[in-house]
Amino acid sequence: MTSAKKTFQPVTLSGVCLIYELLHKNGFVSFPLTGGGKQKVDALVANINGSYFGVTPYETAELRAVAYLYFLIKDHPFTDGNKRTASLVFEVVCEMNSLKPNYQDFTLDALAVFIEKTREPDHQDVIRKLAKELFLKHEPERF
């Protein structure tokens, strides 16, 4: 018996906006969501989940999860709370797709700050490296 390939479950524009609005409602971000912010998120979600001339830039669920984290931080669609929103969206995408990120060497907060500060011009390379680091299957230590 072969197992069917699981379909990636994306977070949509409305899902990202709901997460931001919950953060705002609970006082974790200072400013309400703007129309411009929604447009930026809409473009971001379409770019992560779309294909271009038949090529999908993020072929795996792991790459797409990291792409959400990366672009919500780097594209700065919100007035406030980009790293917080990106971190929560990342966790939701991972949960929806049964992904288990490995935070053995760093925290999600530290990763968000790292992404914000990185100046690497090849964002695809950064996303690939982060996905490899976060989702690499570590073998248990042998004693």
Automatic annotation (TrEMBL):
Residues 11-136 form the Fido domain. Transmembrane segments: none annotated. It holds the Pfam family Fic. Signal peptide: none annotated. This is Fido domain-containing protein.
